[in-house]
Amino acid sequence: MAEMHDLTALEQAGAIARGELSSGDLVEHHLHRVAAIGDTVGAFVTVTADLAREAARAADAVPAEGRGPLHGVPTAIKDLTLTAGVRTTFGSAAFVDFVPPVDADVVRFIKAAGLVSLGKTTTSELGCSLYSEGLVAPPARNPWQLAYTAGGSSGGAAAAVAAGLVPVAQGSDGGGSLRIPASLCGLVGYKPSRGLVSGGPLGSGAFGLPTSGPLGRTVTDVAALLDVMAVPVPGEPYLPPAAPPGGYLAAARRAEPGRLRIGRFTTPMLADEPVHPDCVAAVDRAAALLTAAGHEMVEVPAPLGPEAWPLFEVIWYVLALAPVPPPRESELLPLTRLLRARGAEVTAGTLAATLGELQAQVRLGARRTAGCDLLLCPTLAAPQAPVGWFTADGDPAADFDRQRRFSPYCAIFNVTGDPSVSLPLGTTTDGLPVGVLLTGRYGDDGRLIAAAAQLENLSDGWDRHPAIWRAVDSANVNGDGVGRSPS
C-alpha cells in the first residue's frame, strides 16, 4: 500500500483538493518521518513542528477557490535563507542563536502559496562548500548510501527530499549548490536564470552568482515550486525574465520544447580532471534519448576552461566575507576562515579587474556555443564522495581544491547566469544516482523546463527511492513522533 510520502508534491496537493487528505494529515506523517530518520540523514538543523501544525491548520481552512497547485504540501527552507522568528544559523556555530526578524522574499512566497515548512535544512557554513558537514547539525548524508555525502550547500534539502521527509524543498545555488546535491541524491535540482527569483529583501546580489531554486523528485514538482518562487519584486538588481505561457508547471506538463540543437561536451571546465566513466555514460544516455526524440546533438567545446578558475576563486573568496561578529570569527570552520582571509586580501581594484576579465571569458564561451539551444554535460566529475572525504587531510586549501576537481562544471553557469538543471538520468554500477546537467539560454527557463520534462518522459521516469524510504513507515512511528526500529 502506498504511503503519503510516496505521492509527489502535486499528487499530495491533489489529494488535499479532493478531500482525501488534509494538510494536517500530511504534515503529521512527514513530521513522524523526520523524527525517525531526520538525524540519520542529517536533513534538518531546526525542526519547527508546532509552527508547521499551526500552518497546516491555516492551510486547511482556506477555501478551495483560494488554493494553488501546491497548497498544503509539506516543504522545508534552507538554513541559509532568512526565516522570521525561526533560528537561522547559516550552517555556522557563529550564528547558532540567530533568529531573523524578517522573511526572505522567497520564504514569503512559499508561505503565501500555502506550503507548510517543517523546518530549516542543513547547509554548509555560509554556503562556502559543496558538502554539508558543520558544527550545528549532523552531516547531511546521502539516503542512498549513508557513508556518502548528500552534497552542499543544499545538502540537507536533498537529504530530506530523497529520504521522503518532504516532497519538495527550497534551496539555493551559488556555484552548484542545488545541482550537486541533486546529482548525488537522485533528484531534480534547478538553478533559475539570474534575476528570475528574488534574492531580497537583504543583500547586494553577490555579483549575480547565487539564486534560490527548487529541489524535488520530478520535473513537474520542481516547475510548480518554481512558479511559487518566481514572483517579480521591485528593486531587485537583475531584471526577471518573462515566464512561459501558463507558467513553468504548464511548460513541464506540455513537455514540448520544439526541435532543439543541443551542444554536448564532457571536458571539465574549472579543472583539468579525469571524468568518471559513469558520469560520461549518463551523458551518453541522455544524448541518445534526446537524439531519438528528433533533436540535433552536436559536439561542442566546453564554454570555459581551467584558465577561468583563478578568476572564479577570487570572487568566491570575496563572497565568503559575509558579516560575522568579530568575537565569533574563531568559531568558523578552517575552510571558511581560509576563504575569508584570502578574501580580505583582495583589493577593490583587483575585484573590479577580475569581474571584467571573467565577463570577457563568458563572452568568448557564449560565442563558442552560440548556435545551441541547450548544453548537455556531466553534473560532476565523479558520481559520489564519502562523508569526510573533502576534509580528510586537515588542510583547508587542499579541501577547496578537491571541491574544484569534484565539481568542475556547475559553477560556470552561475557566472553566466544561464538556467541549469541536474537530472537523475544515470546510475553507477552499484545502483547509486548519477546526474546530467542541461543548461539553457539565459531567460529561456520555460524551454529548459520543457526539455527536462521531455527527457524525464523519454526515460520512463526516474522517481526511484533508496532503501531508507521503506525503513520507516507509519507503523514504525509512535503517535508522539518518536521513531521505532522496523521489525
From TrEMBL:
UniProt xrefs under Gene3D superfamilies: Amidase signature (AS) domain
PROSITE patterns: AMIDASES
Cross-referenced SUPFAM superfamilies: Amidase signature (AS) enzymes
First and last residue of the signal peptide: none
One Pfam family, short name: Amidase
GO MF term list: catalytic activity
Domain Amidase: start-end pairs: 25-448
Family affiliation: Belongs to the amidase family.
Protein name: Amidase
Organism in which the protein naturally occurs: Micromonospora cremea
